[in-house]
């Protein structure tokens, strides 16, 4: 693989990614609108309370970091006595009707959170849980063309607008082989980030024209999402003078061997023709 030199890693915070608010707010507002006048619900009986069901919707959400979301807890109970939401996320508005409650959660930034909702009907309490993931697939992965720094190649990979950066792994591959991989688990920021990975190495003549790619992957407890760069190639013109000299000597030696073999074959062929 060659002699490895220090790797430079630059992480810059990006602007928080908006989205996911208006549609869910509208849904929650519609949920509270009456569909016409109806008699006031009566208190549930013990039998109704014992058999009542509840559910939380949606049970799973994946949103950009910084989004606000609505969760609706509904039931078959005609008149709820109480409700509660258990979460470490920041809460917003609360809307309710006789048999349902909707909660707003603000500025979701933890990449995975469990939210538990409880409803009480005639002294009976039931629970339901939902999961909210906040992550952003890398917007772009760009690998710059190789540059020379002294006698080493410099590869620079840019990963833009990714979250959570602490779950990001950046990998460089040459001809299908991993030449370097870096985990960013030490970064614990709660914002979108731009990441630049710089890697230096000494290339060998046999690396000529092999494709090099950069891969950015988010590893989220079994869920893996990511993006890859377009390939760049290590070209002869980008090599250092010493590497070019070695490559030229190798090519010249190979051509010389071909010429010698050709001359030997031609001589034998002419001898056989003269004896015929």
Automatic annotation (TrEMBL):
Gene3D superfamilies: Immunoglobulins
Glycoprotein as UniProt keyword: yes
GO molecular function annotations of the record: integrin binding
GO biological process, one term: cell-cell adhesion
Transmembrane spans: 245-266
Organism superkingdom: Eukaryota
Signal peptide: 1-22
Residues covered by the Intercellular adhesion molecule N-terminal domain: 51-140
Topological category with respect to the lipid bilayer: Single-pass type I membrane protein
This protein's UniProt keywords: Cell adhesion, Disulfide bond, Glycoprotein, Immunoglobulin domain, Membrane, Repeat, Signal, Transmembrane, Transmembrane helix
Compartment(s) of residence: Membrane
InterPro entries according to UniProt: ICAM_N (IPR013768), ICAM_VCAM (IPR047012), ICAM_VCAM_N (IPR003987), Ig-like_dom_sf (IPR036179), Ig-like_fold (IPR013783)
This protein's GO CC annotations: plasma membrane
Family under the similarity heading: Belongs to the immunoglobulin superfamily. ICAM family.
Name used for this protein in its record: Intercellular adhesion molecule 4 (Landsteiner-Wiener blood group)
């Amino acid at each position: 693989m060659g002699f490895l030199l220090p790797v430079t890693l630059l992480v810059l915070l990006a602007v928080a990614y908006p989205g996911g608010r208006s549609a869910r707010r509208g849904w929650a507002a519609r949920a509270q609108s009456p569909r016409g006048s109806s008699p006031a619900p009566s208190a549930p009986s013990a039998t109704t309370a014992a058999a009542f069901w509840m559910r939380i919707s949606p049970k799973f959400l994946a949103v950009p970091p910084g989004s606000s979301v609505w969760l609706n807890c509904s039931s078959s109970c005609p008149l709820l006595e109480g409700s509660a939401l258990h979460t470490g996320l920041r809460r917003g508005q609360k809307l309710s009707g006789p048999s349902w409650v909707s909660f707003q959660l603000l500025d979701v930034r933890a990449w995975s959170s469990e939210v538990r909702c409880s409803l009480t009907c005639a002294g009976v309490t039931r629970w339901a849980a939902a999961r909210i993931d906040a992550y952003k697939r890398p917007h772009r992965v760009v690998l710059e063309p190789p540059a020379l720094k002294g006698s080493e190649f410099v590869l620079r990979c840019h990963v833009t607008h990714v979250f959570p950066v602490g779950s990001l792994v950046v990998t460089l591959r040459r001809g299908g082989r991993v030449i370097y991989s870096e985990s960013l688990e030490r970064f614990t920021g709660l914002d979108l980030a731009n990441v630049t990975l710089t890697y230096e190495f000494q290339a060998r003549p046999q690396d000529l024209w092999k494709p090099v790619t950069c891969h950015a992957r988010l590893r989220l407890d079994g869920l893996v999402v990511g993006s890859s760069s377009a390939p760049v190639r290590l070209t002869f013109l980008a090599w250092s003078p010493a590497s070019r000299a070695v490559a030229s000597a190798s090519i010249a030696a190979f051509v010389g061997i071909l010429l010698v073999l050709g001359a030997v074959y031609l001589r034998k062929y002419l001898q056989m023709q003269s004896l015929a």
